[in-house]
Specification:
Elements: E1 2-5, H1 15-24, E2 47-51, E3 57-61, E4 66-73, E5 79-81, H2 89-94, E6 104-105, E7 111-112, E8 116-119, E9 122-125, E10 134-135, E11 148-154, E12 157-166, E13 177-185, E14 190-199, E15 203-204, E16 208-209, E17 227-230, E18 234-236, E19 249-250, E20 262-263, H3 273-278, E21 282-286, E22 292-293, E23 296-303, E24 309-315, E25 319-323, E26 347-351, E27 366-367, E28 373-383
Antiparallel strand pairs: 1-2, 2-3, 3-4, 4-5, 6-16, 7-10, 8-9, 11-12, 12-13, 13-14, 14-28, 15-27, 17-20, 17-23, 18-19, 18-21, 21-25, 22-23, 23-24, 24-28, 25-26
């Protein structure tokens, strides 16, 4: 079943309100004339619902292609929302610290060192919006624009296709990049996310989904008791600004060994330089390709003991960023009215490695004219 609406009649966002917000400078990253955000676009914001036969559902808004909620059953069949987020567009726009709840991030998800890369003999400068580095596409990345949304079908099942044209020079990137993200929600409680893109100039592309999960239910305490398995025997260690050093380091004998499931909180407080740099886990893991389902690799499995909810991730991407909510501190209050406490949610972002445009030994993240960016990630929810 497919429904388009916005909760409590909030399906339309007031463009004048947003323009006033810009003038007042209320955003953490002030928007300049160069950023070309068109306030009239905000008249077209909608919330879409994909619901399956069991009543489990996903809600998505075309602002930032954000997944606002994922409602799935626990072991007793009780439905609960496991995605952190808000119930109004204003809250997403005006959130302190800009956590990227539920958004599609790009044109390049994760970090690019010093906001700079060279390609085909030309050096490109990007916004440095995360310390000295570029993060998640810049000041106005794909998470802060209004996408075109079109109800569609995949294999005869309802789906939602989001499209966006990132223009040549937008946020400093080369090339007109035509992007499509298709969300499909199945009767098996699988959220299938397909990313597609083409370009007219060579450009870095690395799209990912940035939902924060708490399988006990959003706002229900920390995720430290969640048991996590990552199908990765290596990770990419980082410097103090969270840029990969270029090394692929074995996880064996380190707090980063999740090859066998363990509680997220078991080792997060260990004395370890990498954990100190990330203030916890905020690292890219190099996926092993030994466990595959068709063209997709098993990336992660998470189990929450009190509810029995399980989430399994398969992807065609080579890496996955595990982030355990280190910067959540209780200031953000979600849709249930509960504060999102420190480590109250985790992200598992399938991706190419951070800073790949500057690291020749990493898998290339450059999309060329005539080629197609086409990658899929599946989030499968169940309970036991």
């Amino acid at each position: 079943m497919f429904v388009a609406s916005w909760r409590d009649g909030m399906n339309r966002f007031n463009a004048k309100w947003f323009a006033g917000l810009l003038m007042l400078g209320c955003l953490a990253n002030p928007i300049t004339a160069q950023d070309q955000m068109q306030v009239e676009d905000f008249d077209s914001i909608e919330l879409y619902t994909l619901e399956n036969q069991s009543g489990a559902k996903v809600q998505i808004t075309n602002f930032g292609a954000i997944v606002t909620s994922i409602v799935v059953p626990d072991r007793d069949g009780k439905l609960g929302d496991v995605a952190l987020g808000y119930d109004s567009v204003e809250s997403y726009i005006n959130a302190v610290d800009k956590p990227y709840f539920g958004a599609i991030v790009g044109r390049y998800g994760n970090r690019i060192a010093n906001g700079e890369f060279s390609l085909n003999g030309e050096t490109y400068s990007l916004a440095t919006n995360n310390g000295p580095n570029h993060l998640h596409g810049g000041v106005i990345g794909f998470d802060k624009v209004v996408w075109d949304a079109e109800p569609t079908a995949v294999n005869g099942k309802p789906a939602l296709k989001m499209t966006y044209l990132a223009k040549d020079g937008e946020e400093g990137y080369p090339g007109n990049l035509q992007v499509a993200v298709t969300y499909q929600w199945t009767d098996e409680n699988k959220l299938i996310v397909r990313y597609e893109a083409t370009t007219d100039k060579a450009t870095p592309v690395n799209l990912t989904q940035h939902t924060y999960f708490n399988l006990a239910g959003e706002g229900n305490g920390t995720i430290l008791d969640h048991e996590l398995m990552l199908n990765a025997s290596k990770f990419t260690p980082v410097d103090s600004t969270l840029i990969p050093t270029g090394e692929l380091r074995n996880v064996e004998g380190t707090p980063f060994d999740f090859r066998k499931a363990k509680a997220i909180g078991r080792d997060v407080g260990m004395e370890n330089e990498q954990l100190e740099f990330g203030l916890g886990y905020d690292h890219n893991f190099v996926l092993d390709s030994s466990d595959k389902e068709g063209d997709l690799t098993l990336a992660a499995r998470v189990f929450e003991p009190t509810t029995g909810r399980t989430m399994e991730i398969h992807t065609s991407e080579p890496g996955i960023q595990f982030y355990c909510g280190n910067f959540l501190d209780g200031r953000l209050v979600g849709k249930s009215g509960k504060s999102y406490v420190h480590r109250g949610g985790f992200c598992l972002e399938t991706q190419h490695y951070p800073d790949s445009p500057n690291q020749s030994t990493f898998p290339s993240a450059i999309l060329k004219p005539g080629d197609k960016y086409d990658t899929t990630t599946v989030f499968h929810f169940s309970a036991k």
